[in-house]
Specification:
Elements lengths: L6 E4 L1 H5 L9 H14 L3 E5 L5 H13 L4 E7 L2 H10 L6 E8 L2 H7 L4 H16 L4 E7 L6 H13 L4 E6 L6 H14 L7 E6 L6 H10 L4 E4 L13 H10 L14 H12 L16 E2 L2 H9 L18 E2 L7 H10 L6 H17 L5 H10 L5
Parallel strand pairs: 1-2, 1-8, 2-3, 3-4, 4-5, 5-6, 6-7, 7-8, 9-10
This protein binds 3-methyl-2-oxobutanoic acid and zinc ion.
Length: about 375
C-alpha cells in the first residue's frame, strides 16, 4: 500500500443527507453514489440503516449497485444497529460497518450517563460484534476533538485490539485548531498500541470554518483517510468539503499526498448534489462556486488577460469548470472591456474603446453586470457597425 495515498471517504449521503431539506429518495441516492464511484471515491458512507426503513432500503440498493467503492453503513455501539447495518451491506462487494460511541466528558457523563470504563466496554463490544459480519470495521470516537488524548488513546487501543481496521477521530463540534487536531493524530499514532494495524481517519465539522485546515493537518500528522462531503454539506455548518481537500493535495504536490479522485468531475458532481439536494452553492465557494474563476476588478482583469496565473492558482479545466471569466461591472477596466468585445469578434480603435468605456461605466453603474447584449447596445448607441 502506498503510504502517501489518502483514502477519500464521502459522507454526503449520510452526514450530508442529515441536513434539513436535503433528504433524498432511493433513486437520487443511487445517482449520487454512481457519480462518486465514477469519481474514484474509495469509500461511500451510504446511510444509517437503523434510522428508518427507507434508509435501510437505500443502503441495501447501493450495496447491490456499487462495485468499485467500499459501501459503509453507520451504527451506534448498539447490537441492533450493528445487526441492521450488517444486513444492509450484506450484498456489497466491499462492505464496511462504521460503529462507535461518544468519548468526550460531555458525551460520556451527560449524554450517555456512563463511566469511562463502561465506554471502553461498549467500544470493545461494538467492534467485536461488527467483526462477526464484516472484515472492514471502522470505529468512531464521537467528539474526539474535545476528548482528552489519554482516554482517547485507551478507547482507540480497545477498538484496534478487537479488530478495527480504521480509527475515525471526529472533531464533531468543529472546535479544534489545526495545530491541536494535528497533535491529537500524532499523539494517537505514537501512543496507541497496535495503531499501525489501522488507518487513522479525519472527520471534521466546520463550525469555526476550520474543517478543511483540520483535515489537512490530520493528514500531515499521519491520518490517511479524510471524511468529507461534496460542497461541504453536513450537520450545522457542514463537514470538510471534498473538492477542497482533494485540490489542496493536488496543488501542493510537494506535500506528496494524493487521492484517487478524478478532479475533472468535481464541478459536475457539485452541481448534481446541489440540484438533487436543493442546496445552492455559495458563489464564492472555493473550487466549485460560480465565482471561483471569475474576475471582476480592473486590476485583476488586466493581470489575468495578460497571464491567467497572475490571479489563478488552479486551471479551471482540472476541476471541470468552465473557462475563467472576465465579468463586466462598474469596477472593470478598459482591458476587460476590450477583451470582452474581442470575444464577440469586435475590434475597436483606441478612440472607439474610450467612447465605449465611458458609456459602459454609465450602464454599469445602473446595472450590476453587463452581458454581450449590453455590449451590442453600447455599439448601437455609438453607431459603430461591425
Ligand atoms: O460528527 C461525528 O462525530 C459523526 C460520527 C457519527 C462519525 O458524524
Ligand atoms: Zn459528522
Amino acid at each position: 500500500m502506498d503510504s502517501n495515498k489518502v483514502h477519500i471517504f464521502d459522507t454526503t449521503l449520510r452526514d450530508g443527507e442529515q441536513v434539513p431539506g436535503c433528504q433524498l429518495n432511493a433513486w437520487e441516492k443511487i445517482e449520487i453514489a454512481k457519480q462518486l464511484e465514477k469519481m474514484g471515491v474509495d469509500i461511500i458512507e451510504a446511510g444509517f440503516p437503523v434510522s428508518s426503513p427507507g434508509d435501510f432500503q437505500s443502503v441495501t440498493q447501493l450495496a447491490k449497485t456499487i462495485k468499485d467503492s467500499t459501501i459503509c453503513a453507520l451504527s451506534r455501539a448498539v447490537e441492533k444497529d450493528i445487526v441492521v447495518a450488517a444486513e444492509a451491506v450484506v450484498h456489497a462487494k466491499r462492505p464496511r460497518i462504521h460503529t462507535g460511541i461518544g468519548t468526550s466528558d460531555s458525551h460520556v457523563f451527560d449524554k450517555l450517563r456512563l463511566t469511562r470504563e463502561q465506554v471502553l466496554e461498549r467500544a470493545a463490544f461494538a467492534v467485536k460484534t461488527a467483526k462477526k459480519y464484516v472484515e472492514d470495521v471502522e470505529f468512531y470516537a464521537e467528539d474526539a476533538g474535545r476528548t482528552d488524548n489519554e482516554f482517547l488513546a485507551r478507547v482507540c487501543e480497545v477498538a484496534v485490539a478487537n479488530g478495527a481496521t480504521v480509527l475515525n477521530i471526529p472533531d464533531t463540534t468543529g472546535y479544534c485548531l489545526p495545530s491541536e487536531y494535528g497533535e491529537k493524530i500524532k499523539y494517537l499514532r505514537e501512543n496507541v498500541k497496535g495503531v499501525e494495524k489501522a488507518i487513522l481517519s479525519t472527520h471534521c465539522h466546520n463550525d469555526l470554518g476550520l474543517a478543511t485546515a483540520n483535515s489537512v493537518s490530520g493528514v500531515m500528522n499521519g491520518a490517511r483517510q479524510i471524511e468529507c462531503t461534496i460542497n461541504g454539506i453536513g450537520e450545522r455548518a457542514g463537514n470538510t468539503s471534498m473538492e477542497e481537500v482533494v485540490m489542496i493535495m493536488k496543488q501542493h504536490s510537494s506535500l506528496d499526498y494524493f487521492s484517487n479522485v478524478k478532479t475533472e468531475l468535481l464541478c459536475e458532481t457539485s452541481k448534481m448534489v446541489s440540484e438533487l439536494m436543493h442546496m445552492p452553492v455559495q458563489p464564492n465557494k472555493a473550487i466549485v462556486g460560480s465565482n471561483a474563476f471569475a474576475h471582476s476588478s480592473g486590476i485583476h482583469q488586466d493581470g489575468v488577460i495578460k497571464n491567467r496565473e497572475t490571479y489563478e492558482i488552479i486551471d479551471p479545466k482540472i476541476v471541470g469548470a468552465q473557462d475563467s471569466s472576465i465579468v463586466l461591472t462598474a469596477r472593470s477596466g478598459r482591458a476587460a472591456l476590450a477583451y470582452r468585445f474581442q470575444k464577440i469578434n469586435v475590434k475597436l480603435s483606441k478612440d472607439e474603446l474610450n467612447s465605449a468605456y465611458s458609456l459602459f461605466l454609465t450602464h454599469a453603474d445602473k446595472k450590476k453586470q453587463l452581458n454581450n447584449d449590453d455590449l451590442q447596445v453600447i455599439l448601437n448607441e455609438l453607431s459603430i457597425r461591425v
